[in-house]
TrEMBL record, chains A, B:
Name of the protein: carbonic anhydrase
Gene3D superfamilies noted in UniProt: Carbonic anhydrase (3.40.1050.10)
Taxon lineage: Bacteria, Bacillati, Actinomycetota, Actinomycetes, Pseudonocardiales
SMART domains: Pro_CA (SM00947)
Binding note for cofactor: Binds 1 zinc ion per subunit.
One GO molecular-function entry: carbonate dehydratase activity
Obligatory cofactor(s): Zn(2+)
PANTHER family from the UniProt entry: CARBON DISULFIDE HYDROLASE (PTHR43175:SF3), CARBONIC ANHYDRASE (PTHR43175)
Reaction(s) catalysed by this chain's protein: hydrogencarbonate + H(+) = CO2 + H2O
Binding site for Zn(2+): 35, 37, 88, 91
Role, per record: Catalyzes the reversible hydration of carbon dioxide to form bicarbonate.
Length: 162, 162
């Protein structure tokens, strides 16, 4: 049995105790942008329940064009007003450089990705970079509360980046 | 108190019962790509525990360049092998067109986004589109198990898209 089949079997148990449906717009009017890291269960870390917040995730929790797209839709069409950014300790993005990652792909498949891999060397600095990218975008209208945090994978604690 | 402050207070309770740290690579070698929708708690829907799977999310659960970047890092650097795609019923992406959304932004702020909004009219078709984009990418190496599902927000059930 594949892992996918195993997770589908888990879904049957979820259905048994499901109590929805809930409304489409997030009831707490918050959008979270976080790293895809497996150890970062955003709902549990923030005590969120189903229906309360949009959750946007990618490698690093960085802000690229696709996160601006998602935040624009989140705020303009679904009414979110606060943004929470979450990077974390022991992140894979700290372990390589864009140059070496893209070179390894080029060597293997013959073409170099036309995108930045978005690796970084400093967690706090990259959180501030992500906040800056949102602040710089004309497409995200509500910028009153954009706050950035680092999640400690050893303790579960969020620390705000000054 | 802002919602962000309220969620930070929740984090203190999470820290109290935290039992990490866990290893960096996802132990089930799976990456999930899902919509950012607030009602879709990916860990609960699939019965995932912390540390088991990468979770990538955006508006629609669509595959753009940033999801290819995340999947490339997930597979090449962190060893995931299976991909699960999840769209869902009652999705906001079904409620507008790219043309009207981008026109409304242009009318308000004076510049039209250079990106596609990625709205769609058919859930199953868009899941297949997302699978196709991954299959077409030279940067995602492992394509043996790429399966797509629609999550029913009324029942909690995942249905595989043929």
């Amino acid at each position: 049995m594949s892992v996918t089949d195993e997770l589908l079997a888990n879904n049957a148990a979820y259905v048994e105790q499901f109590t929805g449906p809930l409304p489409l717009p997030p009831s707490k009017h918050v959008a979270v942008v976080a790293c895809m890291d497996a150890r970062l269960d955003v709902y549990r870390v923030l005590g969120l329940n189903e229906g309360e917040a949009h959750v946007i995730r990618n490698a690093g929790g960085v802000v690229t064009e696709d996160e601006i797209r998602s935040l624009a839709i989140s705020q303009r069409l679904l009414g979110t007003k606060e943004i929470i950014l979450i990077h974390h300790t022991d992140c894979g993005m700290l372990t390589f450089t864009d140059d070496e990652f893209k070179r390894s792909i080029q060597d293997e498949v013959g073409v170099k990705p036309p995108w930045a891999a978005e690796s970084f060397k400093d967690l706090d600095e990259d959180v501030r970079q992500s906040i800056g990218r949102i602040r710089n975008s004309p497409y995200v209208p509500v910028k009153d509360s954009i706050r950035g945090f680092v999640f400690d994978v050893a303790t579960g604690k969020l620390t705000e980046v000054a």
